[in-house]
Amino acid sequence: MYAQAFFVAVFGLAAIGFGVVVFRTSSMMRSALALLFSMTAVGCLFLAMQTEFLGVLQIMMMATEMSIMAIFMVMFMMDPGGLGGMDMSHQKRFSIGAGVSAAVVAIAVALLSDWGPAAEQVVDAQAQTRALGMELLGRSMMIFETAGITILTAMIAATAVAIPVKNLSSKDGKEASE
Amino acid sequence: MTMILILALVTGAILFGIGVYGALSQTNLVMIMMGVELMLAGAMVNLVAFWRFLHPEAYSGQMFVLVVMTVMALEMAVGFGVAIARFRAKGSVEMEEAEDLKG
Amino acid sequence: MTVAIVLLALLGSAWLLAVVEGWMATGRLSPAAPLFRGLAHLGRESIVPRSPDRVFFEAAPVLLLVVAVLGMAVLPLAPDLIIADLGTGALFVNAALAYVLVAVIMAGWGPDGAYAMIGGWRFLGQLIAYSMLIVMPITAVAMRAESLVNTAIVGSQAGLWNIVYQPLGFVLFYIAAMALAFRAPFDLPSAEGELGGGVDAEYTGVRLAVLRLARLTLVVTLASATTVFYLGGWHGPLLPPSAWSLIKTLAVAVSMLLVGHYLPRIREANLMRWCWVLGIPLALLNIIIVGLLILVVP
């Protein structure tokens, strides 16, 4: 139990630390990769809480997603290297207030409520994966299928929004944006 | 065990708070999306902690986490598509300039 | 003890692969060459670019090596010779190999140089192509084994190897593995002739030695993954199980080098087109066929 508490604390602190780095650094690449390592720490937190499938899935997905976010930052932001030292934020006091109050309210609820008896053991990873698969394709089949259709719709929508508008009047426009 | 539950909940709360700060204070669309990602990560940490310590027999908790992960990926995809379209139209994705519905 | 044996096997396989690579490049078979080349790298001057991003510049080769070793840690050499027999081993291999992308992007951005950066972003283009083709054949393999545990996956191939059961999956996984390790013909990120070395360009001295070792180890890890998923792992008639694993792994790794030696480099625009238009429908077809075979054949 103490080993688990130690690892949960370590990975939690790592996630929070990298999360703070995301908004403190002025280099955009460091920001994106700090978010990546924060998500990896959250994935390791899942592993420390004995949900192996979710932890491995989180680690895998976030590596790819955050790297793609990194290239989008380099494409769209003015100072990806961060050497200019500009401060790109607005309404600072309001947002710090909102963030701190949200965190404080959540921590207060966590500390003050009575959670009841906490489960000591869970089944091992193989049984969990099997049970999750049974749940996914048995009771929650509707949710699974809806998620699949939603993913397809989002893919089509994102592609449709992102392709350049073709010039309908001339033939060269059509071939140029091929 | 309850101590570990509270540790995880506090971590989730702080991650959520950092995400709220980021989403509200940043002017660039990509940075706002990073704030939203942190908020969703905080929510996922709470969900997994509740599953593990309070209801380990109900696998719909893990199902919820899968759905939230899917939502994270999808909103990033659609958000970046919108960012590309905006960048092509206006030349920047600064949200301070996005005040009008027109254009 | 197990850790030491597996790491030693990994290092030995990387050494043999370096010898074969030298043989293909120069025509001479010199078994001690990797040691001398490694020592020469350590002795050379370590040039650091003018204004690198220090964190990324230092971390990228180390991360690549850590990823390769972590991937090997969940793959079995024999029924009891596995560092960590995770409950979701097949997925963990994929998760560890996703960090190759992070390492290459760091290596591309860190040195603050044009060629390195182009190489790094080209690898992202390759990732879009190969990442589905790595996961879907693993799904079909796990379907046959009815488990994600790597030892169970090898155990399910006791009667018939997966390369015979799912040949389509094997071809797709092999191609995607070569694209992941950015070996020729998919080596645009570090194109030797074209990009001045790409992501390898700005590294010298100790860091280059670590980077080269990491790339070879990555090929060995991927070859070991191919062996575990498709070639029946440690099953074989006469020799002990670990010997069969090593033989199969080295055969796959050397074949990857040979295929790269004889094929021209592929642009990632063409790679993306072929993988998405042809590869993903074939991977889905593979899953359907495997599902039908599992349900129908007793």
Automatic annotation (TrEMBL), chain B:
It comes from the Bacteria. GO terms for molecular function: NADH dehydrogenase (quinone) (non-electrogenic) activity; quinone binding. The chain crosses the membrane at residues 32-51, 63-85. Pfam families: Oxidored_q2 (PF00420). Its main location: membrane. The keyword Transcription does not apply. It catalyses: a quinone + NADH + 5 H(+)(in) = a quinol + NAD(+) + 4 H(+)(out). Its EC number is 7.1.1.-. It is found in: Cell membrane; Membrane. GO terms for cellular component: NADH dehydrogenase complex; plasma membrane. It is an enzyme of class 7 (translocase). HAMAP family: NDH1_NuoK. NCBIfam families: PRK05715.1-2. This is NADH-quinone oxidoreductase subunit K. It comes from Vreelandella aquamarina. The lineage of its organism: Bacteria, Pseudomonadati, Pseudomonadota, Gammaproteobacteria, Oceanospirillales.
